[in-house]
Amino acid sequence: MNFRDLDYICSVAEHKHFGKAAMACNVSQPTLSGQIRKLEARLGVTLFERSHKGVRTTRIGEEIITIAKEALSAADRIQSVAALAQNPLSGRLSLGLIPTIAPYLIPRFVKNLGADLPELKIHYIEDITPRLNEALLDGKLDAAILATPPEEDMLTAIELYSESFWVVLPKGHKLSYTAKTPSMSDIDTDDLLLLTEGHCFRDQALSICKPAQNRRDQSLRATSLETLINLVAAGQGVTLVPALATESGGLNQSDLILRKLSDMGAARTIYMTFRKSFPQREALSALIKTIRTGLPDTVTQRVKRVI
After folding, report:
1. Using N-to-C axis directions, what is the helix angle for 3-15 and 18-25, rounded to 10°?
2. What is the mean pLDDT of residues 128-153?
């Protein structure tokens, strides 16, 4: 048994298809299938049920694959620790970000990485919170910038900053004349455009709606703030954005007006989340410092502590 075999079975379990797993592992399907059959013979168990309908992991296969993922993660940590012994600020770091943070935060620090951390290569993944958390737990991500604190015991987090919520109004909206600091009670929730379910910013926005339960369903399934902002500019409603987004060029349209919300709790805290066992602490600490240096005055840095 070797790590290559473990990688093969984990890939089949993930893709539920031998051909797709082989492509992901950059080998031919006969090679991958043959190695898995040899492993099953060596272990004396069947890891996968094969049929014309597809591939299903057996009960014992699920147990073995769980252990295999742990072994592969441990092997990655061994390599990381060895590399860090040479230069703790070098190597590769995979960083996840949610869609309501990535387009506004990355441009603020990416230019400084070359000067601050020239030998550290960052690989960015943009996705929703549940999938980023899952990737962290599986070892597929090193760290993630999220708007919710971790709930799993394996994860920990450092606060990066906090930011208030702003309402985006179409030109001529009544709130642009009557309230410089409106609250959610001033907004007709039927006009409020929100991201589709699965985005934590949607949940945070709904938490300050009064009353949220009376809000009518909408057919819109937007997955980006940019879509919602353009709909507001077209007069289709109002929306909320985090403070960092107010610095973006997309809101510098003549058809849009921005107002900071006055509601208590109309804000969110942004965290750098990572596994407690993650070995590249010095590199992550340096990355956090670079990120904080590039933050604008529209957000608040209450916590200066790094790892």
Report:
1. 130
2. 94
Domain(s) labelled CATH 3.40.190.290 in the chain stretch across 90-307
Q: Are 305 and 158 in contact (CB under 8 A)?
A: yes
Intervals of CATH 1.10.10.10 along the chain: 3-82
Q: Please name the residue ranges forming H helices in the chain.
A: 3-15, 18-25, 29-43, 59-86, 102-116, 129-138, 175-178, 200-206, 225-233, 281-293
The CATH number of the domain covering residues in 3-82: 1.10.10.10
Residue 9 CB neighbours (<10 A): 23
Which range (141-150, 220-229, 268-277) has the least confidence?
220-229
Is 96 strand, coil or helix?
A: strand
Of 274, 284, 305, 270, which is closest to residue 154 (Cα–Cα)? 274
The terminus-to-terminus CA distance of the chain in angstroms comes to: 37
CATH topology of domain 90-307: D-Maltodextrin-Binding Protein; domain 2 (3.40.190)
Per DSSP, the three-state class of 187 is: coil
Q: Summarize the confidence of residues 151-158 as an average pLDDT.
A: 94
Q: Is 105 in contact with 113 (CB distance < 8 Å)?
A: no
Based on the number of CB atoms within 10 Å of its own CB, is 146 exposed (0-12), middle (13-18) or buried (19 or more)? Answer: buried
Residue 193, SS3 per DSSP: strand
CA quadruple 267, 179, 223, 289: dihedral, nearest 10: -40
Averaged over 80-87, what is the pLDDT? 72
SS3 state at 64:
helix
